[in-house]
Structure formats: C-alpha cells, structure tokens
Amino acid sequence: MMTRGAFPLFLGLIVAGMLGGCIGLPNLPTLNNKNYRPPNTGKFAWGISTSSYQYENPDVSPGEKKYFSTDWDILVKKGSAPKKGNAVYTWTEFEKDLAALEKIGVTHYRFSIEWARIEPRPGVYDQKVIDKYVRMTKALKEAGIEPVVCLWHFTFPDWLYDTKHPANSNWLHPDYPARWQAFVKKMVYAFGPAVRYYAPQNEPNGQITTAYLVGQWPPGEIMNLGNYKKAIISSADQFRAAAHIIKAYNPN
Q1: In 10 A of CB 23, how many CB atoms?
Q2: 182 has a pLDDT exceeding 50
Q3: Mean of the per-residue pLDDT values for the chain?
C-alpha cells in the first residue's frame, strides 16, 4: 500500500511525464544543409513556441521603478523554486531570436507575453513594454513570420498571489476575472491587425493539476480537490471571456 507521503511524489512523477514536452530538454537536431528551408506545403504551418518566463530575461532589478514580480518569483523567495536568472535573454535580444527564426525558415512563431511585466501593479500598465511587444509582432510580420500571441503561459502577477491564503491565489483570486479581461482587451487593441492568432491560455489543465493536486507549482496545494475544480471552472470561463474580447475586436 502506498504511504501518504509517497502519494504526492507518485502523482508528481505522473504529471512530470505528462508535461515532459514542456519541461524536458530534447536532443538538438542535426542540420547538415545550411541553406535548408522547410518544404512548401501550402497551408501547413512550421512553428516554434516559447514562453516568457522561460525565455525572457527580467532586464529590471528589485527596487527599480519598473520592477515586476510573478507568483513564481514568490516561490523563489520562499526557497521553493530555483532562481530564474536571465533565461536566454529573449527580452533584450529578440533580434537574435528573429534572425534564428528566419534562418530555419519557420512560418509561425507562438510566444507568450508576460502579464506581470505589462501590469506590474493592478491597473498600472507599462506602455513602453506594451510598445515593445507590438514592435516584436510587427518585426515578425515583416520577416514573413506569422506571430501567434499567447496571453497567459503559467505565470500570474504577484499581486494576484494571496500570501496569507495561498489557495485563493491566481485563478481563484477575487480580482482575477476583472483584471484578466482588462488585460486581454488592452493587449488585443494594442496589437491591432498585426496579430491574427491568439492562444488565450497555454495548458491550464497541466498548470492547475500541478498547482492544486501535486503542490509543485504556485500556490503549491496538495490534493485540494475543491480548489482544483474551482480553478478548472475559472480557467474555462476566462478562456471564453478572452475569446469573446478577441472576436469582438476582429471577428476573423
């Protein structure tokens, strides 16, 4: 019989296997022909996907006016997660990423935007950050690459994390629906016609499982089935809300 202490570990191994494509390190491909271009298959999309927290360097330090923090950064401060560092510098050196995307000939690039960077405090938006994300999408379009914007990719601004009642954080924070919808509308109107495709959320089922059943991702709840169900409902409701906002701006 499995002990109580072993169950979270067992469940964690299952989830880790499920999410292997996101958190694992694949073997590097061998590319012998330097002039390689993917074959032209008409409407078939050759895409690359990245996430803001895993790729962007912060480019800002604690104490600075533009400093932002996510729920994951709260775990780092608590010693429950490893320090992020500068990732692969996608925020300050996006031009290098764009050059690499052009070199390998992709048709689509799905990347996430960091909500906390855009809205470091409730209702306070960093317009320079928004403008930079917009420039990134336009640069992709000019390079012949279709931008696909992911509006949420695992991280929440730290102001949606309730340190006194962690279980009521993020999806379950009382301010989440209103602030999320305001954020989505702000970004959809900022991107304008440059962005034709959106992914409102990235794998919320995996994030919610790991956050409320396994206890490895914020808010670190273990087998909280009640909040797990509430978070699933919240994510589905706000996915629909985001889709409605996007379609209202551009029905196509």
Answers
A1: 11
A2: yes
A3: 89
